[in-house]
Amino acid sequence: MSIESPHDPRLADYRDLTDVALRRLLEPERGLYIAESAKVIGRALAAGHAPRSVLVQEKWLEDVEALLADHDADHSDLDIFVVTPEIAEAITGYAVHRGALAAMHRPVPADVRDVISDARLIVVLEDIMDHTNVGAIFRAAAGLGADAVLVSPRCADPLSRRSVRVSMGTVFQVPWTRLPEWRRARGILHDAGFHLAALSLADGAVALDDFAAAGHERVALMLGAEGDGLSRWALEAADTIVTIPMAGGVDSLNVAAASAVALWELRPRTT
């Protein structure tokens, strides 16, 4: 259906997406998240997520209709709002260069034990509030063989628009869920047989390559926020403190870059 005004009440899910506080209020309450671009929408659909509606520019309409038809679910009753580029920008507050947005129903969070049951290498994100870093870490996890990602209660939402976009939709590819506080989380991970490796600059830390050579069967790689790093509780929960040896007077990497280096070193290897 064609939309003639950015103020159309049917577009409430898409309006003011640049207002972070409003987005945090509305999305959890309504159980929604926003997928941007046909590629990302396709990955969300492939993961079994259900769209509530689609906002699309005219020139992308056929592509979106074909994308919806490629999946088994019946989308015949789905609202597809067709807008001009000017109306799209007026609605969202930014230029929608990739042609399509979809308001997706948020899936029910999975149980931690189910997510990690068959995993060998997982990533644990503690209180990383930058959505770009979260998305980049998911992309590294997908590309370098991590089996799952667990995020702390205060970590940024992996299904935020920016996280989804930066991850190139890999947040739908890598199983993930929220981890409880460390007093419970440590027991869950240890009961599942994981060795907790905290990436940190702490004194006495083991070099990453030495840790990888130890050959632990199941590893949970723990990553903290920029600047503050992992909390005292996370470091106390860890079995080993691990560091990436640096040169050139540089003490550390951006957390997303560090995740890629560590995952490469710990990646599953065939014999």
Mean pLDDT: 88
The helix fraction, in percent, is: 25-40%
User: In total, how many domains does the architecture comprise?
Assistant: 2
Tell me the overall shape.
elongated
Structural class: alpha/beta
Low-pLDDT ranges: none
Total count of strands: 11
CATH class assignment of the largest domain: Alpha Beta
CATH-level-4 superfamily name of the largest domain: SPOUT methyltransferase, trefoil knot domain
Summarize the helix and strand pattern as letters.
HEHEHEHEHEHEHEHEEHEHEH
Give the biggest beta sheet: 7 strands, parallel
Question: Would you write up a description of this structure?
Answer:
The protein is of the alpha/beta class and 271 residues long. The protein folds into two domains: 9-105, 60s Ribosomal Protein L30, Chain: A; 112-266, 3-Layer(aba) Sandwich (Alpha/beta knot), CATH 3.40.1280. The chain has helices at 20-30, 38-46, 61-69, 85-92, 112-116, 131-143, 161-166, 182-191, 208-213, 232-237, 255-266, and strands at residues 32-36, 51-57, 79-83, 100-105, 121-126, 148-151, 176-178, 195-199, 206-207, 219-224, 240-243. The strands form two sheets. A seven-stranded parallel β-sheet has the order 7-6-5-10-8-11-9. Helix 6 (131-143) links the parallel strand 5 (121-126) and strand 6. Helix 2 runs parallel beside helix 3 (61-69) and helix 6 packs parallel to helix 11 (255-266). The longest helix is centred in the middle third of the chain and has 13 residues, at 131-143. The chain starts with 19 loop residues before the first helix and ends in a 5-residue tail after the last helix. 41% of the residues are buried.
